[in-house]
Batch of 2 targets.
Target 1
Amino acid sequence: MAPPSRRASDNVARRLSEAASRRPSIDPSRLIPMDKAVHLQGSDDFNVVFVGAGNIMFGSDEGPWNHSFRFEHKLGPRLKVVALIDPAIDRAAAVLQKKCETFVRSAYENTRVFRTLEDFVKNMSPKDRPRAVVVGSPPMFRGTTQPGRDIELQIMKCFPGVAMFIEKPIATGPVGELEEAFKVSKAISDSGAICSVGYMLRYLKAVQKIKQIIEENNLTVMATIARYATAYEAIAKPDWWDKAKSAGPVVEQGTHFCDLSRYFGGEVDIASVSAHSLEWHENAGHLSKQQIDESKIAPENRIPRVTSATWKYESGAVGSFTHLVALQGHNYSCELEVYADGYQFKLVDPYVQPILYIRRPGSDLDEQHRFPDDDPFFSEISNLIDVIEDIEEDPESATILSSFDDACKTYQLTWAIRTASEQSVKACMDRKAAA
Ligand SMILES: NC(=O)c1ccc[n+]([C@@H]2O[C@H](COP(=O)([O-])OP(=O)(O)OC[C@H]3O[C@@H](n4cnc5c(N)ncnc54)[C@H](O)[C@@H]3O)[C@@H](O)[C@H]2O)c1
C-alpha cells in the first residue's frame, strides 16, 4: 500500500488527468428525434448562409446527411437562407429550384447564389446579415490561413461574431499545414464566435449514454478500440482513392472514429502514435470490386487497404484504431469499444442502427440497448441553434460537443497515424532492400 502522502498526490494527479480527459456531454434523454422537436418559436427571421451546395448540405443517396433538411425542421418558417455560396453555380441553382417546389419554399425563394463569400458580401444588404454560416465545402478549401483556403478567417472578417458550423475534417492539406489549422482555431477562440464542427457521432444517444455512465460512476477510461471497415465497392468518387486529393481514408473518413476515441480517451500523446498499413501493391492488398480505375492515380498517391494504429493517451490509457478498405456491398462495419474498471462499452453500427452492449461489474452478460429514431445530424444542428439563440431556461440543455480546437486535435491524430504508417512502410522496404 502506498504511504498516505503518495496516495494524496496520486489522487490529485488522477483527478487532474480525469479533468483533462473530460469532454462536454448531453443527457441522452434530451436528444430527441426531429419529429418530436417543436419549431423554435419567435417571429424573427433566422438568416443562414450555406457554403457548398453538395451532398452534406442537400442530401444524396450515400447516407442520411442533409443539413438543410435539419435546419428547416429546427427553425421552421423562421429559416431564411440568404445566400448559397458555391463555384458550381448550376448545381447551386438546381438544388434551390428543387427546394422552391416544396413547402419549404419560404426559406429559399430569396436565396441568392454566389461563387465566393466575397461576392456575397459585396452585394449584401444589411438585412441579409447572417446569424450562422454553415460550411460544407470540400476540406481542401478550408482550415488554413492561405487566401482561397481560409473560409473561416474570411467569415470572421466579414461577419465578426457570427456563429459557424464547419464540416469535418477541418482541412485536408499537406501535413505541413497543420500549424495553420491551429492558428485558425486560435483566431476562432480569440474572436469568441460560436463554432461547431460536424463530428455528429458525438451526438448519438448511444455515445451520450456511455458518457453518462462514465460520469455517474466516476470511471477512468483504460482503453479505446475502434474499427472502421468501409464498403469500398460503394465508393465511386475517384478523389477518395487519391491521397493527394483526399489526404487518405484515415484523415478523410476514419476521422470520425479517431474523434470518438479522443472523446472518450482524452488527449493523445501524439509522439506515441505508431501504425502499420497494408498497401495497394502488396499481395494481400488486391481488391476485386473497385468501381474506379485506380491506374489513373499516381502509384504514390494510391490509398492503403488497411491502416492499424496504437497510441497512448495523456491519461495513460491506450488507444487503437484500424481502418479497412476491404468490404463490398453497401453498409460499413464499424465498432468502438471503451473499457474502464469493470466496464465494457461496445458500440456497433453507429451509422445505421446503433446498438450499445454494456457489460458492468457483477455480471458476465452484455446488456443490449437500441436507439430507434435517433438522429445525430439533427441533434448537432439543434444544439447549435439553441446555443446561438442562447436559450436560458435550462443552461445544461444546449451544448456544442465538437469545438474547432478539439477537431484540430483529431485532425492532428489522423495525420500522425498516416505519417507513422508511411514511415513504417518505408522502414519495411529499406529492411527488405538491405536483406
Ligand atoms: N459528417 C458526415 O457524415 C459527412 C457526410 C458527408 C460529407 N461530409 C463532409 O462534408 C464536406 C463536403 O462533402 P460533400 O459530400 O457535400 O461534397 P460534394 O462534393 O458533394 O459537395 C461539395 C460542394 O462544394 C462546392 N465547392 C467547391 N469549392 C468550394 C468553395 N471554395 N466554396 C464553396 N463551395 C465549394 C462544390 O462545387 C460542391 O458543390 C466534406 O468535408 C465531407 O467530409 C460529412
Target 2
Amino acid sequence: MHSFERDASGRITAVVYRSNGIDHWQRCAAVFLCAGAIETPRLLLHLGLANSSGQVGRNYMAHVATQVWGIFEQEMRPNRGFPASLITEDMLRPPDADFSAGYLVQSLGIVPVTWATQVARGRGLWGQRLVDYIQKFNHVAGIGINGECLSQPGNFLELSDEIDETGMRKPRVNFSYGANERSMSQHAAKFMTAAWQAAGASDIWTFERSAHTIGTCRMGTDRDNAVVDGSGRSFDVENLWICDNSVFPSALAANPALTIMALSLRTAEAFLGRGAP
Ligand SMILES: Cc1cc2nc3c(=O)[nH]c(=O)nc-3n(C[C@H](O)[C@H](O)[C@H](O)COP(=O)(O)OP(=O)(O)OC[C@H]3O[C@@H](n4cnc5c(N)ncnc54)[C@H](O)[C@@H]3O)c2cc1C
C-alpha cells in the first residue's frame, strides 16, 4: 500500500494499494500500520502524516550485536548443534562498565552460507583463503550479544531522492555508533574472548556488527516528542494505530520479536476498549 484517503476531519477512510499496476481503495474504520521501523516512517514521511511532533524517522536504533568466533578441536556443527539462545543476562548492568545500559550474551547457530559471508566481511578473506578457512565450519562456534543502543540526534531515517515504482521516495538510514555503543562493543568483545579462551577455542576473532531496526515512531506520553501514545495510537490521526518495531522508545537488550508481539496484543486490547492506557 502506498497511500491513505482521509476525510475533512483527518480520519483515514481508505487504504490505497497497488496490485498488478492498478490502484485499489480499501475502505476502513481504522488502520493498523505494521510495516516495520523502516517502511512505517517512510510511508508517514512520504504522506506528511502523524508527524506534528517531528519525531517520525527520529530515534533510529540498532542493537550492538558484536560476535566472537573460534575454532574448537571437537566438532561443533553450528548449523545443527546448539541453537541461538540465551546464555546469560549477567552483563545487563556489568559492574565494571564504562558505558550506560548493557547487553545479553547468547549462543549462535549459523548456516554455512551466512558463516561464509560473515567471514568475508569480518576477516576480509576472499578467494582461496576464504575457501580454505570455511572448511573448518564444523569446528566453529560463536557467541554474540544484543546490546542496548542509545538514541542520538544523528541516527535517523529520512527520504532519499530515489523513487520506487509506486512513486514513493526510498528511505535512507543514517546510523553510526556513539561512544556508548563503541565502549559496550569493546567490553563485550573482551568478555566473550575470555570465555572462548577458557573454553579452549583457538583462532579467536571478533566480528563487529549491529542488528535489528528499532525506533523511528516512538511511543510516549507527550504528543510534542512522541508519535504514538501508550497504546500505540497516533496522537495526530485518531483512527491510526502503529504496531511494530518503530514504536519502541528504547532499544532494550533483548531480541525484539516477543516485545513487538506483546505490544501488539496490548494495542489490540486498547483498540477493543478492554484496557491498556
Ligand atoms: C535475519 C534476521 C534474523 C532475526 N532474528 C531474530 C530473532 O532471532 N529474534 C527476534 O526477536 N528477532 C529477530 N529478528 C528481528 C525481527 O525479525 C524483527 O524485529 C521483526 O520481524 C520486526 O517486526 P515488525 O512487525 O516491526 O516488522 P516486519 O516483520 O518487518 O513486518 C513488516 C511487514 O510489513 C510489510 N510492508 C512493509 N511496507 C509495506 C507497504 N507499503 N505495504 C504493504 N506491506 C508492507 C512487509 O512486507 C512486512 O511483511 C531477525 C531479523 C532478521 C532480518
